[in-house]
Amino acid sequence: MTSSPPFEDAAVVTLDAGQWQDFLDSLYERDDTLAVREPGGTYTRDEAVDAYTLSAHAEALQSADVDGDVWGTLEDIDETAETEEDAWAKITAFYLDRDCVLVRVTGLDEPEEWILARTLATRVGLLRPGA
Known about the structure:
The relative contact order is 0.21. The model is unreliable at 1-8 (pLDDT under 50). This protein is an alpha+beta fold. Helix content is 31%, strand content 22%. Helix 3 (70-76) crosses helix 4 (84-96). The chain has a 4-stranded mixed sheet. Strand 2 (27-30) and strand 3 form a beta hairpin. It comes from Deinococcus rufus. This is DUF4259 domain-containing protein.
């Protein structure tokens, strides 16, 4: 990424819309693995990462651009809720209790939140190692 993301704590990372795009642009996917592009590295166009590509690696997500299937995820964790907001809150709590990281993107028209495994968040530069 061109600028370091703000590290709020070990459970939540907040990026503005520009940082989010820089983050996505800094990644590549090869053999179903996400990694950070190295300066001078060679990457093909089909290795580029967008929100749809990242969604395959997320534990759960709430996005205007990608269908995160909040209700299906809620069912997967054997929970129920009356509203989508309550459902997302239960999903978030479930995954944060399991050592995942919430990535919150600000400055967009609609809420954008992604839950990633801590190991993935660290490997792709969203968390410092050991955070």
